[in-house]
Write a structure and sequence with these properties.
By secondary structure, the chain is an alpha+beta fold. 33% of the residues lie in helices and 36% in strands. A six-stranded antiparallel β-sheet has the order 1-2-3-4-5-6, with helices on one face. α2 (10-26) packs antiparallel against α4.
C-alpha cells in the first residue's frame, strides 16, 4: 500500500520518513515517491494492505542501478490474535522503460534476480539498507 496511505499515526509516519532518509543516505540522488501506485481498480486489486510501498526515482537511467526507478515494499505480518505487526521482509524491484528489470527479496536468500542487475557495490548498499529497515521496524 502506498506509504502516504499508511502514514496514519505519528509512529508510522516517523518510521516512513526514517526509511526515506536511510535510502537517501545510501543513494543521495534518489527522489522519494510516497504514492508509487496508481489509484485505479486494476492496481488496487494487487496492493498488499500489510505493506509500506515507496518508490525512488533517479534523475535518469542509472548505470549502477541498471534502472531508473526502484519500488521498495516493506512487508508485515499482522498477528490475528493481538493485532501487532512485525516486519517479515523487504522487497525491491528496479524498473526502466521496459518495465521490471530486476528484483530483490530478503525472503528469497537475499538474491537479486533479473535480466540486468545493479553493480556489486549497489547490491551491498541495498542489502545494508534492508538490514537497517529490519532494525527500524523490529
Amino acid at each position: 500500500m502506498n506509504a502516504a496511505e499508511q502514514a496514519r499515526g505519528l509512529e508510522v509516519t516517523t518510521k516512513i520518513a526514517a526509511v526515506v532518509n536511510l535510502f537517501k543516505a545510501e543513494f543521495p540522488d534518489a527522489k522519494a515517491d510516497l504514492k508509487p501506485w496508481k489509484n485505479d481498480p486494476d492496481t488496487r486489486e494487487l496492493i498488499d494492505p500489510d505493506s509500506i510501498d515507496i518508490g525512488f526515482h533517479f534523475p535518469g537511467w542509472s548505470r549502477k542501478f541498471q534502472s531508473r526507478s526502484i519500488l521498495v515494499q516493506i512487508r508485515f505480518y499482522k498477528d490475528p490474535l493481538n493485532g501487532s505487526h512485525a516486519c517479515i521482509g523487504v522487497e525491491a524491484a528496479g524498473f526502466d522503460h521496459r518495465g521490471k528489470v530486476w528484483r530483490f527479496s530478503t525472503v528469497e536468500n537475499w538474491q537479486i534476480l533479473g535480466q540486468s542487475q545493479p553493480a556489486p557495490e549497489v547490491q551491498e548498499k541495498l542489502k545494508h539498507f534492508c538490514r537497517q529497515v529490519f532494525e527500524l521496524f523490529n
